[in-house]
Amino acid sequence: MKWIAPSEKDAATISLEKRLWEAADQFRANSGLKAQEYSGPILGLIFLRFVKVRFVIQPPAELAL
């Protein structure tokens, strides 16, 4: 599976990016974490997103109908 980011951004994508940056700024400001501690939760969220995408694309054989 290859994923290539689209070269052009529409209004919805720009709006989503803005909301994500604002959420990241709020998390960073309100978390009380130091800069070196900030990557742990973020990498965990990225990993969970990756697992979700992989699971949707190819569910485990035990769950296949």
Overview of this protein structure:
This protein is mainly α. It has a domain at 35-60. The protein contains 2 helices and no strands. The longest helix has 21 residues, at 11-31. It is flat. The two termini are 23 Å apart. The model has no long low-confidence stretch (mean pLDDT 77).
What topology does this entry show?
Layout: H1 11-31, H2 39-57
Q: Can you tag this structure with a few keywords?
A:
65 residues, single chain, mainly alpha, flat, 2 helices, 62% helix
What is shown here, in short?
With 65 residues, the chain is mainly alpha-helical. Helices cover 62% and strands 0% of the residues.
Rg over CA atoms, rounded to whole Å, is 16 Å
Class from helix and strand fractions: mainly alpha
Question: Terminal Cα separation, in Å?
Answer: 23 Å
Number of strands: 0
How large is the count of helical segments?
Answer: 2
Percentage of residues in helical conformation: 55-70%
In one word, what is the shape? flat
**Stretches with pLDDT under 50, minimum 5 residues:** none
Taking the sheet with the most strands, its summary is: none
Mean pLDDT across all residues, rounded?
77
Elements, N to C (H/E): HH
User: In what range is the share of β-strand residues?
Assistant: under 5%
